[in-house]
Ribosomal protein
Amino acid sequence: MFPRLFTRQFQTTAFRLAEETGTKLSKEQLRKRELRKMVQRRLQAKTPASDHPLYMPVSKALRYLRAIEVGQPAGQQTITLTTLVVSERGVPPLAGNVSFTKPLKDVKVAVFTDDEAQATLMKEKYNVHLVGGSDLVSKIKAGEVSINFDKAFATPDIVPQLASQVGRILGPRGLLPSVKKGTVAEDLETLVKDSMSSVPFRQRGNCISLAVAKTYFSDKEVLENLLAAQKSIKQSITTQQTKKPSILSQTTLTSTHGPGIVIDFA
């Protein structure tokens, strides 16, 4: 009985002393704890994906994910890539755009220009959803044209007219072309070409999650999209303004109704 009571009293005293000491050294303890966690995360990031119990080669992972999605609506059968990111505190989050070889959906693009040559190029070569100049702006203002496009680009000559006449219509939808957003240029071909299959990504918390394919895509198409995502994400790491760039860690593939399967990616 006595030893047990003594043990409890000793533990209580030890906890009290630890708390008192912790109040004095809390910042230092937190700093050391964070350093230890960072070292552990970096070591884990360097561990081969094949060592994980849920690891599968991509081709095998796709067979499992497709089997799980049998009977589900085709529009919901999306394959998503999620990769953990190890980064120091204060490092800006990774962000960029991925140009997929096989887009997940058709992107509807609107082009505003009074340059007839560029308008013709957009119609004939890129088959964009909407093309026009001052006439198109007027029709949108009057409500005669549905705003059912996903992206919009313009040449500099028509930007003032866009801002003054349809800024309140397109602006809240994020569809008003502007130099700041990189959607205004003298030569629109490069912008439109890249936008047709371009998808933005951004690090949220400690991970990047990005839809990369549909389950009915072929293995080749999925692999090509994964390589495109890998290239873009790694490129965003090289442009980080920091002495210690981020590191890609555990990466999983999952489908809308399926589990997460670890794959090689980093």
